[in-house]
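Q&A log
Question type: sequence-to-structure
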Amino acid sequence: MIESDLIKKRILVIGSNGMLGQRLSEFFSKSDKVELMCTSAEENSFIPDVQYKQLDITQKNSVRQIILDFFPDFIINTAAFTNVDKSETEKETAWKINVGGVENIALYSWTIDAHLIHFSTDYIFDGKNGPYNEEDKPNPTGYYGRTKLAAENSIHISGTRYSIIRTNVLYGSSKYGRPDFVKWLVDSLKKGEKVRIVTDQIGNPTYIDDLVNAVNKIIEFKKEGIFNIGGREMLSRYDFALRIAKYFGLDEKLIVPILTKELKQLAARPLRSGLITIKAETEIGFKAHTIEETFSLMKIDLTRDF
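Response status: OK
Response body:
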């Protein structure tokens, strides 16, 4: 065994109480090759038995203290202002978190020569000519997308080593926080509630544990650059909902097809979107589960009260 195998990787997960942050923290907390530190905006951690500190990423000195004290090899940033519509009315807050906070993290990542892994989104594109690869030119139509693109650009010029993961339509089990799309739909249909789902938003829904595995591969191979991570299939939200209903034996007739414009949302959505994952498949060996495989993995959590 070489010496580097004996040294634990120090990994800092920022935003560990979010859906993705929870799964990343649970995954790395089980590894005997990792020393893990978790931070989030809340006072207490949702994940038991981990090193945890409360952190507001907009506070530069707080970011500095935690990063310099822990001195991680890898910083995984999942913290973000993700409310797409509120980003249109709360622009200052969205920018402060999504851009200012990321600038703080990137600065101190560069200071200690850590490898920053940051999550971005298909909302940096206008959704006219998807699916997109890593080289396609961004053109966000909403303020949320603009903040996420600005965050990417701030990382590019920071000088730190980085990997930016672009993803879309996350779903998967997490113990705390708001339900993902699958759980929300299953719960609604179980109650006999009608749900309106758009037919004109196309993407490749991303199973959250596939995303966690991609992060682990990036760390394992120390891969830098931009990587798209998404599911195997391009489909509309409506078709995705029908697949969920069919798999779990629920009434598909309760799913009402509508167009995005009928929702009268403040922010424009990228309609013809989705992310091509060939680069990740080639360079880090990424392989997404099929949609039905992911439902099978989620089934225990979703059907325990059927």
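Response note: The first strand starts at residue 9 and ends at 14.
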